[in-house]
Amino acid sequence: MSVLLREVCRALAPALATTAPAILVDATCGLGGHLLALLESSRPTRAFAFDRDPAARALAWQRLETAAMTTNVTMIDGRFSTMNARLAEVGVTQVAAILADLGVSSLQLDDGARGFSWRADAPLDMRMDPTTGTSAAELLATIETNELARILRELGEEPDAGRIARAIVAARPTSTTALVEVVTAAMSAPQRRKIGLRINPATRTFQALRLHINNELGELDRLLEDAPGLLAVGGRLAIISFHSLEDRRVKQRFARLSRPPVVPAHVPLRADELPRAKFALPPEFAKGVIAAPDEQGDNPRARSARLRVLERIEA
Ligand SMILES: C[S@@+](CC[C@H](N)C(=O)[O-])C[C@H]1O[C@@H](n2cnc3c(N)ncnc32)[C@H](O)[C@@H]1O
Hints:
Layout: H1 5-18, E1 23-26, H2 33-42, E2 46-51, H3 54-66, E3 73-77, H4 83-89, E4 95-101, H5 106-110, H6 136-142, H7 145-156, H8 161-171, H9 176-186, H10 189-195, H11 203-213, H12 216-230, E5 231-241, H13 244-257, E6 279-280, E7 289-290, H14 293-298, E8 306-312
Parallel strand pairs: 1-2, 1-4, 2-3, 4-5
Antiparallel strand pairs: 5-8, 6-8, 7-8
Helix pairs in contact: 1-2, 7-8, 7-11, 8-9, 12-13
The structure holds S-adenosylmethionine.
């Protein structure tokens, strides 16, 4: 179920309506839910859809075919950190709208065999693109305690990072079930009481390993660096994030880009000569938008989602 679907369409519609050519980039196509809705509601001239997961690309393409929506859509295999270069290869240097819906798809979470979730017993893989890189089991087979503790602390915000890391390195689990057992046994009593039955004790560990295995924050930093430069005047970049580690980065980068450049106090400039920021936060989205209560009720994943939008206002 695509998160914040109405809000994403509302955020990107003005950019696709007023910027010519109306090129749309979906940086995280997943199962194509947002892409299909945007194709139907805003009718972009062309769309490019990225996903690093071959299974997601195949399924999304099937859905587009079923909806007779493949005309003018190009699917690109790869990470969104390569977006500017991959688009330049096909002659695209400016676009009207970019969407990034971060994190894992329901396809990845629900396919028990891929090791993303503690709900199904599976080998610890967790790679969004299973054709390349290191799986979580391979990482845990060799990692040292200090490095693992750092990952659990920084990417999982896990208060028991040290003791959990020591237990994992002692057991070196290779399956989701074994990892849950090790983490549950290692967790301190106060921490176990604190989380109670609210979440699985291994939730933070799974999040940290997944973010690390897929370099998700590195990917996001690259996107935040490069994507604004792709926007034509009037173009918009919309990002949905699911936890504070991501949202903080998006918020800070958007705030920095939408502040005018600082002019030294001794430079004599009239008000109309002051440099203006090239980007702005559209007022409706300035504080970030969360899912409406009905969506939060229907889709638990939507409860932690926040949409932020940046608009290019100057060349
Ligand atoms: C939350 S899902 C997107 C769901 C999609 N918006 C929909 O409506 O179906 C995120 C998708 O982004 C992909 N993804 C995550 N990080 C990526 C990256 N750095 N480059 C390309 N794709 C990425 C994942 O493989 C996953 O399929």
